[in-house]
Design brief:
The protein is an alpha/beta fold and about 500 residues long. The chain has 15 helices and 19 strands. Helix content is about 35%, strand content about 20%. About 55% of the residues are buried.
Length: about 500
């Protein structure tokens, strides 16, 4: 796997005027006069408006050669600092700087974490398939966050934590960006095993024969049409004296043609992204382990390629799931819920205290919430609130949606099987899909993250979000684990 290289990051008590770097990213609040650079910035029309970015020569005011001024509000929160750091670093990268210092008025803890995280995430670029990738001489290699509190262990720890989480997010982005022919289920499983090597995370892989032996009819049914057989990858992180047991389940459809209910050509164009949920839960598990959080994590990456062929599952077929329930298939393009059902059953069997699944599950969620917001549904209000709190803290936009009462009868309305796979009505698709998944979690507290919209950015980069794979939900999952530890679960 060709990984994207993120810069090294550190924290320093150096002053903006004396720090040694190629470029200084300087936060200018809208109530600030910008100091020695005020007149130059004014000539360029810089007003300090939130999000505004201007690049100027440093002159005699600093030891750096270039200053990137970034507008901030009077009291910027962590998310504003994340975005400002990313925008500043991207502007610095355009000058071919190799070292960047950031003076965005960070204090302690979350603010320093936000600046470091934003700078790292804004540095991301995916060039694995470029014949002439950016050379080391032309890319940002070092980032220095300036803080008066840099010698405090909590601040040093905050920067190190930001680096771990940013690398995990970049890993998920890399996997989502990889062309689908190079990341079919067996190859994806192999890469997960490779990434977990040398970490405290134990990995086991079930091939198609083991999946059949274990009665995982959902994963097998979805992968039946492909000549690249499905895989289920289980990751286990079990520290001493964990405060709780969290299970993570990820949808890993490495390419979604729609199967026999085939998509249009345009609809297939970005369907390499349909494994973003699996990428997120794997990356988050590895980050939680690297941080040494005292929380047991069991993750299931449910990997299959949804293709049409003579062996593919047909509309009208009935699959027997890991739980023993039978499911009548109506639309083979609603395949994600089938692989997740087996993963959720295994999470329950593992004895998890809480289960989170992550999936690019429904186009209906994109219709409801747009391209930058994930839906959160579940059977436990407290867990959903914990997820939403973690998302807010990390700046990932998520919104609660209900599993309404009438969806229960719709899910169980099949005339020949226990469960109906696809919504009989043309609306409420996200709610129906969540109600379907709920059938496989029993009484275990569970939350479902539908990341269909924000998992991939088809447009221009914005804030710390690049074009292509975004790595959405990795940071939320790691923060949730940290919050559970802090609360003693």
């Amino acid at each position: 796997m060709n990984e994207s290289l993120l810069p090294d990051v550190s924290v320093s008590t150096a002053k903006p005027s004396s720090v040694k770097a190629d470029v200084l990213v300087l936060g200018v609040r809208n109530d600030d006069d910008a100091g020695d650079h005020a007149s130059t910035l004014a000539l360029l029309g810089f007003t300090g408006e939130k999000g505004q970015v201007v690049t100027v020569p440093a002159g005699e005011a600093a030891k750096v050669s270039t200053v990137v001024a970034v507008g901030l509000s009077a009291e910027p929160d962590a998310e504003e600092l994340r975005r400002a750091a990313a925008s500043g670093v991207r502007a610095a990268a355009r000058t071919k700087a190799t070292s960047v210092a950031l003076a965005l008025h960070p204090a302690e803890g979350d603010e320093v974490t936000a600046v470091a995280e934003g700078a790292l995430l804004g540095s991301y670029r995916y060039e694995a398939y470029k014949t002439k990738p950016t050379s080391d001489d032309d890319r940002v290699r070092t980032l220095t966050v300036l803080s008066a509190f840099a010698r405090q262990s909590t601040v040093v720890d905050a920067v190190e934590r930001a680096a771990v989480v940013a690398r995990a997010t970049a890993l998920a982005r890399d996997w989502v960006n990889t062309p689908p022919g190079d990341l079919r289920p067996p190859a994806f499983a192999d890469q997960i095993v490779e990434r977990a090597g040398g970490t405290p995370v134990k990995v086991s892989v079930w091939d198609e024969k083991r999946l059949e032996k274990e009665h995982c009819g959902g994963i097998l049914g979805v992968g039946a049409g492909s000549d690249a057989p499905p895989r289920l990858v289980r990751l286990s992180y079990e520290p001493r004296k964990p405060v709780t047991h969290l299970a993570l389940v990820g949808k890993g459809i490495t390419f979604d043609s729609g199967g026999l209910s085939i998509k249009s050509g345009a609809g297939m164009q970005t369907m390499k992204i349909d494994m973003a949920g699996a990428a997120a839960v794997v990356a988050a598990t590895l980050a939680i382990a690297e941080l040494g959080l005292p929380i047991k994590v069991t993750a299931f990456a449910c990997l299959a390629e949804n293709m049409p062929s003579g062996s593919a599952t047909r509309p009208g077929d009935v699959l027997t799931m890991r739980s023993g329930s039978t499911v009548e298939v109506h639309n083979t393009d609603a395949e994600g819920r089938l692989v997740l059902a087996d993963g959720l059953s295994l999470a329950v069997e593992a004895g998890a205290d809480r289960i989170i699944d992550v999936a690019t599950l429904t186009g209906a969620c994109v219709v409801a919430l747009g391209e930058r917001t994930s839906g959160v549904l579940g059977n436990d209000d407290a867990l959903s609130e914990s997820v939403l709190d973690a998302a807010k803290a990390t700046g990932e936009s998520m919104w609660p949606l209900p599993i309404v009462e009438e969806m229960k009868s719709a899910v169980t309305s099949s005339k020949i099987a226990d469960i109906r796979q696809h919504n009989p009505k043309p609306y409420g698709g996200t709610l129906f899909a969540a109600a379907f998944l709920r059938e496989f979690v029993g009484e275990t507290p569970w939350a479902h993250l539908d990341i269909a919209g924000p998992s991939f950015n088809d447009g221009a980069e914005h804030g710390y979000t690049p074009s292509g794979g975004t790595g959405v939900s990795v940071r939320t999952l790691v923060r949730l684990a940290s919050d559970l530890v802090a609360a003693g679960a």
